[in-house]
Each structure stands twice: as C-alpha cells, then as structure tokens.
Design goal:
Largest sheet: 6 strands, mixed
Strand content: 25-35%
Number of helices: 10
Structural class: alpha+beta
Distance between the termini: 35 Å
Number of strands: 21
Number of domains: 2
CATH architecture of the largest domain: 3-Layer(aba) Sandwich
CATH topology of the largest domain: Rossmann fold
Length: 388
C-alpha cells in the first residue's frame, strides 16, 4: 500500500513527489475542521481524498498547497518541512473546478504562460508546450482560442498548463464535477493514463466514490475531519473498518440488532430475526452483550433462492420478494425479511429471473461476508442526513 495511516506519525521515503502529513489539525476559531491527521503519500501514486461535503478533504488539499497553515502539526514535501513556505515556492501544480484560463490567449499561450513567468528559454517553452498538448489529447488545437473549446477541452488545457511546469505533485480539487457523465468518464480515463505516463504524484479530491475507485491507486476516506480509512479501492470496498466507510463506498444492506452473547461467535437479535455470526465479523470494536450493532451485507453477497433450497452452510433467512428487475446480465431484487427490506444483485439465470414479485423465497449468505459495526456517532450520522 502506498499510503499509511496510524495514530502515530508515519513518513514516506522523502522521494521527489512524496508528502508527509504529520499530526495536522486545522481550526477556525472554536470549529475544528481537521483533527490530528497523519498521512504519508508515496511518490508517483494517484491518491484520492474522498468524503462528503464538510469532511475536511479540501482543507487538507489547501494545507498541502500552502494556501493556509495548520493550527497544529506540519507537512513535509519531498522530505522537507514546508511550514511557512509560500505556495509558489512549493513543487506543486494545481487544477481546480474553476479553470481560470485566459480567454484572450490561445491554447498554446495558456499552457506556456507559467513557463514565460519563470523565464524559461523560448525553444524549451516550445518543446514542452508541444509535448503536453499532445499528452492531453489536443494535437492540432494549439492556435485555438479558449472560447472555441468544449468544456472537456478546456479542462485538458488547464491540466496541461499545470503539468508543463513539471511539478513533482499535482493537486486536483474536484476538477471534473461540472462536466456531464460521458465527458467526465473520458477525462477520468485520460487523467489516469497521463498520471501513469508521467509518474507524477496526483492528489485528487472528490465526493464521488465511483470516480475515486476508477482513478485511484489509493483512496483516503475522510469524515468528520478525520481519516477514516486508507487503502486500495478494492480493499476499502471489501474490508471497510467502520460503518461510515461501509455506507459511503458502494451499495449496502444494513440490519440493526443487539448482541445477546459474544465469544467465538456473535449471537444477535436483529430486524431479520436471530443471527449467529463469527466473532471475526466485528470490525473496529469488541462487541459485548447488550451492545447495539449494525450488520452489513453487500447486495451481491445475498443469493435469493426458492423457499425449500438447502442452506449448505449459509445463513438462511425467510423472505418475500417485493420487486424483481432484470437488467441484462444482472437481476436486482428487493426482499422483505422480518422488519426490513434487503437488496440483492445476482447474475441473471433462468431460475432467479423467473421468480415473481410477492412470492416467498429464501435469502442465503456466507457468514464470512457479513460485517458487524458499532452504530455511527452523531457527527458522522449527519453526513448521511440521519438524525442522531
């Protein structure tokens, strides 16, 4: 893994393009926006800061950029403490949703602007501009005015303008959020391809979990001013370490319950009836009898079968199909089970596609796929619009 998180300070290897965030907090008056964040980003990786509005991800990006200073802690770039170092002297480039392109300049002139400010030789400017026009897919458009470009082409100009300065780190604050879905997907592919070719460290901010999983080597999930989990997209999806991460990444079935006994197994009384799960299902806490918990299951881990189907070692729940939608290779089902409705996604087969709504069924799942979490704190619950 390229990014590490712990309660103690972690450090990268100090290579060109590395970032170390060491016990950083940021407050505005009595309001704490970031709380003791430790994060180490290795050089040459694509890292996404992911979380809901107000989680602190943009504040962290602004601290790395040098637009603001930490209330506590410090940040190192390339192994050097950058406390007090102004933005223009940090080895970073930036791309924001507001592109701030010069409308009266051509594409090439916009890209060359920073190089001219740095008084780079004219032949070197021409060489670099030509290279990055090609790299971002704007061949033949160097003489066009900004007003003649589409939204996606303008975004590519902004990207080239930052990369042409050859920073060791590129910071991107939701640069694709204003684009339509098709254009956004095209630029996601382009961004990832460019990052791989240049091996520049990209730190990307988004609230879109699908975008984060498509682009990133590593995802940093943030909530309530803290880093909640760090890992590869697949690891965070498959092994979330708390309910906040589990809810924020992907579709989820939540079953509320209470622990009645704990030991090698967890015995629970839940909305779908009594459940017995392995103690290893509990993530991030040690449940005790009487504790309220939430059992989480991904829709693809629920198999819907006929009422008389054998369990074969799976947990089995009696239910009734509320709706069934066949969408090409996938069948989506809603199942009333106890006091809650569960969602299942399965590969379309003759058997499950034929199950009609309102028919009784059996819901099966491997207990190894269940995750048991403590309920959300009041502050984290607000991120999902839930009342404490």
């Amino acid at each position: 893994m390229n990014v590490h998180l712990s309660s103690t300070i972690q450090t990268s290897d100090g290579a060109d393009g590395s970032i170390d965030v060491n016990a950083v907090s940021k407050s505005y008056g009595s309001v704490e926006v970031l709380s003791s964040v430790n994060l180490a980003i290795a050089a040459g990786t694509f890292v996404t800061l992911l979380g809901p509005s107000g989680c602190g991800k943009t504040t962290l990006l602004r601290l790395i950029a040098g637009f603001i200073e930490p209330t506590q802690g410090h940040i190192q770039i390339n192994g050097v403490d950058v406390s007090g170092v102004p933005t223009q002297k940090r080895p970073i480039g930036m791309v924001f949703q507001n592109l701030a392109l010069f409308p009266h300049f051509s594409v090439a002139e916009n890209i060359a602007y920073g190089l001219k400010i740095k008084k780079v030789a004219a032949d070197e400017i021409d060489r670099r501009v030509a290279r990055f026009i090609g790299l971002v897919g704007l061949d033949g458009m160097g003489d066009r005015r900004i007003s003649q470009l589409s939204g996606g082409q303008k975004q590519r100009v902004a990207l080239a303008r930052s990369l042409v300065l050859e920073p060791s780190i590129l910071l991107l604050d939701e640069p694709l959020s204003a684009l339509d879905m098709q254009l956004r997907r095209q630029l996601q592919i382009a961004l990832k391809d460019i990052q791989r070719k240049l091996k520049t460290t990209f730190v990307f901010v988004t609230h879109d979990q699908e975008e984060a999983t498509i682009l990133s080597d590593t995802v940093v999930v943030m909530g309530d001013g803290k880093v909640q989990q760090v890992g590869t997209p697949q690891d965070i999806y498959s092994n979330p370490n708390n309910l906040f991460v589990s809810k924020f990444i992907g579709e989820l079935n939540e079953i509320k319950g209470r622990v009645t006994a704990s030991g090698r197994d967890l015995t629970l009384e839940t909305e779908v009836g009594p459940l017995t799960l392995p103690a290893s299902a509990a993530q991030g806490f040690t449940p005790r009898a009487g504790d309220e918990v939430v059992v989480c299951l991904r829709p693809e881990h629920l198999h819907v079968a006929a009422p008389d189907a054998p369990a074969n070692g799976s947990v089995a729940l009696a239910g009734q199909i509320t709706d069934c939608l066949v969408s090409g290779p996938l069948t989506h089902m809603g199942i009333q089970t106890g006091r809650t409705i569960l969602s299942s996604v399965m590969m379309t087969q003759a058997g499950n596609a034929a199950l009609p709504s309102a028919s009784p069924c059996k819901v099966l799942f491997d207990p190894a796929h269940a995750r048991v979490f403590a309920p959300l704190s009041d502050r984290l619950a607000k991120a999902f619009g839930e009342q404490p």
